[in-house]
Amino acid sequence: MLTKRIIACLDVKDGRVVKGTSFESLRDSGDPVELARRYYFEGADELVFLDITASKEHRATMAALVERVADAVFIPLTVGGGLNSVEDMRRLLLCGADKISLNTAAVKQPELISRAAERFGSQCVVVAIDAKRVPEHEPYRWLVHTYGGSVATSLDAVQWAAQVAELGAGEILLTSMDADGHRAGYDIELTRVVATSVPIPVIASGGAGSPEDLHRALTDGKADAVLAASIFHYSEFAITQTKEYLHHKGLSIRR
């Protein structure tokens, strides 16, 4: 059985970690360096740092802050936000990132995924997909959103996931915009249909409210890893505690 990963998320705006509901009503959640260090010592398998307004504001990711976060931890660090070229990616990798995450730029320039994979290796390329359910559509359908969730596209999320895998992405970070921040559980249907449609790992994101929600995403949802923010930011559940729960439920977890 492959080891499942627990990933802590740092959504960053104006140099601070923030958290909202369905990508709106953002509230301050702390200092990114302090939170990164805390999650490292609690046993997070990886960290994801997303400069969530960089694309919308047409600016580069905060490289100096990324470097400070990278210096504070010794686990894989994925960084995304405002990346538009291979050179942008190289700059963040030199700042200490282990992987880069593409979202808006990948939709606008799908060939950028292939160029990044050729330059840095597929294991370094994560494509983030922010998906929103089409209301009252049967069977279920989700559309991709860009620019921090503010712009809807006509891309079908499941088809886009298959395409990015073919283009050379090494992993997919799949966020349900409907579930994000509501803490009522991940979108299991979305997670399962994407995870079973692609040959690369899928990280479930959006909706974690308890360790049980993580367990469902990893089992019913077929995810390879789970990303969470709120339940860890506000110390309702420690990563150590969550890992113990998942271990006792029979999952292979790095403890």
Which features characterize this protein?
255 residues, 8-stranded parallel beta barrel, 12 strands, globular, 34% helix, alpha/beta, TIM Barrel
Provide structural commentary.
With 255 residues, this protein is an alpha/beta fold. The protein has a single domain (5-248), classed as TIM Barrel, CATH 3.20.20. The protein is 34% helix and 27% strand. It contains 10 helices and 12 strands. It has an 8-stranded parallel barrel with strand order 1-4-5-6-7-10-11-12, surrounded by 6 helices. Strand 10 (171-176), helix 7 (188-195) and strand 11 (202-205) form a beta-alpha-beta unit. Helix 1 runs parallel beside helix 2 and helix 8 packs across helix 10 (239-248). The chain is globular, with a radius of gyration of 16 Å. It starts with a strand and ends in a 7-residue tail after the last helix.
What's the helix and strand layout?
Layout: E1 5-13, E2 16-21, E3 24-30, H1 32-42, E4 46-51, H2 63-72, E5 77-80, H3 86-94, E6 99-102, H4 104-108, H5 111-120, E7 125-133, E8 142-146, E9 151-156, H6 157-167, E10 171-176, H7 188-195, E11 202-205, H8 211-219, E12 225-228, H9 230-233, H10 239-248
Parallel strand pairs: 1-4, 1-12, 4-5, 5-6, 6-7, 7-10, 10-11, 11-12
Antiparallel strand pairs: 1-2, 2-3, 7-8, 8-9
